[in-house]
Amino acid sequence: MTRNDTCPGACEHQEDETEYYERVFDPMQTDRRARRKRKPVPRQLPKKPEEQIMEELADPIGLEGGFNTTYRPGQHEEQWLLSSLRSFYDQELITDVLAQVKGGKEASVYRCAAHPTVGSPFLASKVYRPRMFRTLRNDAVYRQGRQILTAEGRPVKTTDHRIMRAIGKKTVFGVQVMHTSWLMHEYNTLECLYHAGGAVPRPAAASENAILMSYHGDAQMAAPTLNTVRLDYGEAVLLFREVLRNVELMLQHDLIHGDLSAYNVLLWENELTIIDFPQAANSCANTEAYRILKRDIERVCDYFEGQGVRCDPSAIVDDLWSRYPGVEGGDRAADLSALEALSLE
Fold first, then answer.
1. Are strands 107-114 and 2-5 parallel, antiparallel or unpaired?
2. For 290-299, what is each residue's pLDDT tens digit?
3. Three-state DSSP state, 16
4. Closest CA relative to residue 133, chosen from 73, 57, 212
5. Partners of residue 4 on adjacent β-strands
6. What is the Cα–Cα distance from 56 to 159, expressed in whole angstroms?
7. 224 has which bridge partners?
């Protein structure tokens, strides 16, 4: 007796009754060739255009999800922005996105209306661009000596072979892990320096693609960066000392900003705030640490020399480098007396 049967995705064929029941009730039969024949062949999908990838990066939210914003982002910005900030909205940390206050090649910053329970009217959200569209070069230089972090800010175990293999092969998952780690290093650095008394934004929360922090400015404008401000001599001296205090505070925690300049220092109501720490380097583990520190100090001195402050960047770097990187134990209490003697009248 034979039976005519049609298998899903296969052509019709003839088989006897014994073969039919064996196939139906014993799918793990020992005929491997038969099993391979029934195994579906993966279909190769065409590469998606960047516009389609952007649209699929997040589920539809916005008005349908109750997250309405005063700020009207561009067509391709909307899904990425709202999906990145949605967790802050759900946690009742923000209620609205009011304006973009800074656009950048790596990330953009937005002024958000804070939830009434936060205790301040505004918060700033730094939203990273998708990894495929970031233009930061040589980020491996800054990653040197840093651990890979999870979305919770904890180090990934080197024994986690799945993650390590994905990173090594640069799979989509591996690239996302590195993207999240880059962001969480900035968040952890802010937390460390803020609680140590650094002049940095107060971190409030982090998601896989955004950091929420204190906002500096008012409803009309964000705090300007130092490069747009002209200082009188007395004010410049005080602010220069404050920048050096923060540089030394970073070194006390084995950190170097990595991109410090007048473009990454805010000034509001005579107080400065240092921003943008994704490139913060480990001063003890990064072989480029001296060069990175030297570049930071030279850029800072360039600005303050233009404001009338006498600076000797080489002397400052040598003094700092002789006392902090690689030091284990001992008293690392801040002492700016040597710096002041070297650089200030």
1. unpaired
2. 999 999 999 9
3. strand
4. 57
5. 14
6. 32
7. none
